[in-house]
Amino acid sequence: MTDAAISAPAATPAPAAVSATTVPVVQLTGVSKVFQPTSQGARPVEALKGIDLTVRRGEFVSLIGPSGCGKSTLLRAIGDLTSVTEGSVAVNGKPAAQARRDRDYGMVFQAPVLFEWRSVQENVELPLEIIGRPPHERAVRAREMLDLVELGEFMSHRPWQLSGGMQQRVAIARALALGPDILLMDEPFGALDEMTRERMNLELLRIWERTGTTVIFVTHSIPEAVFLSTRVVVMSARPGRITDVVDVDLPHSRDVETRELERYFELVTRVRESLRRGEGPSSGGTARVRAEGLSA
Ligand code: ADP
Ligand code: MG
To answer: What is the DSSP string of 77-146?
Structure first.
């Protein structure tokens, strides 16, 4: 993150126009993660095993897999919110810890985590306040980001006066306030109803196209993953491994009609089958139930 990145208006490169660089935004090599037991008699949990993944600038990559397969752990490892047991995590060519210090990330979680006593504007200004930006600059940037998520009219509202979808848009605006290279999102729309979720999907794609930010997005919704992504990374349960990577060759810009395309249905089916295969033939019935437990 540079000063220029903060003060620059949301740029408008189409994803295809985002320049390819030789340094990947995220490079995971042989990443494994074992959680050590905290109570006696409990066993260690092997959450991730042998993860290799490269994410290039401007990509929109979704991580999908059954509950407990390590999606959040992987995202947290990329964001330096958890350490890895083996392997390396490089972000913009440096260790994840350095990338976090350089504020290369914006993060959005399932709950928007807004401060109720602050206005919408003050919530979005928070990261700028923390790094000591002057009030005028904070206000200009907050306005810009709130316009981007179409909440310009709600700057002086309190979070509790907004719907769940609007609150999540405030969280996205806040995550983008410092102009991060990478947006890490962990099931950000998981708590929203289906219609709001579809609207948020469209909105997120528009933001992604306008800002050129690389997005890594955790979901357990197959349609959501296919609709949003340039690539879908399929993971299997315990230990979490990558079992497939599906290139999503749907045209941009995507809109409501994308969901009607034959290719869209083919890709949804492809990811669903991949999830089932990832569960492995030996796990039989349970595997099927688990894979179908994912929204389809
Ligand atoms: P997902 O996001 O795919 O549902 P998680 O990454 O949250 O999965 O968890 C992967 C596995 O690691 C699960 O078995 C979970 O119980 C375990 N796990 C996650 N966080 C911790 C932790 N802090 N301590 C111990 N085990 C954990
Ligand atoms: Mg999770």
So the answer is: HHTTSS--SEEEEEETTEEHHHHHHTT-EEEE-SS----TTS-HHHHHHHHHHHTT--HHHHHHHHHHHH
> Which of 39, 48, 73 for mutating ligand 1's site (highest number of atoms within 8 Å of CB)?
73
Kindly tell me if the per-residue pLDDT of 1 is higher than 60: no
Which residue do the tokens 């399932």 mark? 110
Residue 292 C-alpha to ligand 1 middle, in angstroms?
20
SS3 258: helix
What integer pLDDT is reported at residue 278 of this predicted model? 81
Q: Cβ(47) to ligand 1 under 6 A?
A: yes
Give the residue among 195, 174, 180 at the shortest CA–CA distance from 109.
174
Task: Please give the pLDDT value at position 268.
Answer: 98
Question: Ligand 2 centroid vs 78 CA: distance in angstroms?
Answer: 14
Q: What is the pTM of this model?
A: 0.88
Q: What does each C-alpha distance from 114 to 69, 252, 269, 284 come to in angstroms?
A: 28, 32, 37, 43
| Residue 15, C-beta contacts closer than 8 angstroms, at least 6 positions apart | 58, 60, 208, 209, 212, 230, 252
Rounded Cα gap, residues 90 and 36, in angstroms? 24
Protein residue closest via CA to atom 21 of ligand 1: 35
With 0-12 CB in 10 A as exposed, 13-18 as middle and 19+ as buried, what is 68? middle
Top pLDDT among 73 and 39 is at 73
The residue whose CA has the least distance to atom 26 of ligand 1 is 35
